[in-house]
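OP here, attaching both records as promised.
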Amino acid sequence: MTTAAPVQHKAPRPRADALRNRERIVTAAREMFVEFGADVPLDEIARRAGVGNATVYRNFPDRDALVREVVCSVLDRTSEQAERALAETGDAFEALSRFVHASADERISALCPMVSSTFDKHHPDLVAARERIEQLVEEIMERARKAGQLRTDVGVGDVMISVVQLSRPPAGAGCLSLDLFVHRHLQLFLDGLRAPAHSELPGTAATMEDLRQA
């Protein structure tokens, strides 16, 4: 007598309206985190998203989960901008430029510091999004160096910390009021990355590990 193999049931796919609600919550949270900081009441986020409080908690059981989702989505969208530029133009420096400006538009400098000591920095989703963007920028920079477009004495850490410092102040600190100057200053920074270099930088190229240990 043989035993029938158990029937494998696929997990039901989320309904389209449920996915739209989740996207609206993440978008509203991103906007309000930037404007007011990570402590903005979740019911205010629900109100801006046009959903009920129960819908927010059904998708995100706590504030940490929502902040993490917002940060991951921003990192992923920024990576996609750079990948798209590389695919469209084949120009590594143009892809790097697109990444830098997209980072400002996505407000990475305001959102990423929210993953503070109270959050799980080692959550698999966050680690995957962070590794993706770091590896992508490293690959783009290496291609730009080989093409003679990028000075040789800068590292991924130099780019990341400069983007954060030049783009915007922390969330809730009037960061929206500086939009007029951000891309102008980022373009000056990008021009300084181009080869040939016109000066010698002090110290050594910064890596992401240098930043994490700082």
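Record two, same layout:
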Amino acid sequence: MLRSRISTLFFEAQRCFFKMNSENRKPFTVLVEGNIGSGKTTFLEHFRQFEDITLLTEPVEQWRNLRGWNLLDLMYKDPAKWAMTFQSYVSLTMVDMHLRPTPTPVKLMERSIFSARYCFVENMLRNGILHEAEFAVLDEWFRFIQQHMSIDADLIVYLKTSPSVVHERIRKRARSEEQCVPLKYLEDLHQLHEDWLVNRAFAECPAPVVIIDADLDLSQITDEYKKSEHQILRKAVDVVMRSPNKLSPKKPVTGSPIKIVPQMRL
């Protein structure tokens, strides 16, 4: 009850502040990143209870039905043929999410154009699925979007999971297109997420990172999501307080990620 009351008071203060400073303001944008099956949708659903937050889930249904074509299924079945087409459309739909206006001061997005480029497109290049010429085209589009469109982020929540855990989750959720996803594919994606968000080894990180250990069973992970509520929302208020125009940082972030580690359960 006390935690609920504190959350209520915090949001009331936040709401009053934003009402006083709402003109020409971008929303505080949080990118929810992680491997396939890491619990991103569940994380976003946890925040549906807060009326000052807009949730934008990954546009999977658009990928599954573009004028009747299931691009996600085509990509998984024949990646060498369809990866370029699929990732081109992913970029388009992700840019739409980044640019979509929201009526609330905080926006949570499931994945982003950054993870599309730094994790999925990068993985396809390294595994020979994309020809280098195809990669060059996708990378040029990404650079153009970065330079000419407002796709800044203020915070990244990284749902860190073990490849074996998400492999089992994918099997259980039985999404038809994903049944052919091998463990190695998940291992490769995991390492790219780690190198991008934790090790900062090969790509720019557009915002500070909060790491949540998401290996817990999805029925138990809610407790860990609750721990992140104030972390996310205090940062939102802090950024707005410091910058009346809510200008996101343009330079790569180099600071160490913040870890939210679950308590031991006996």
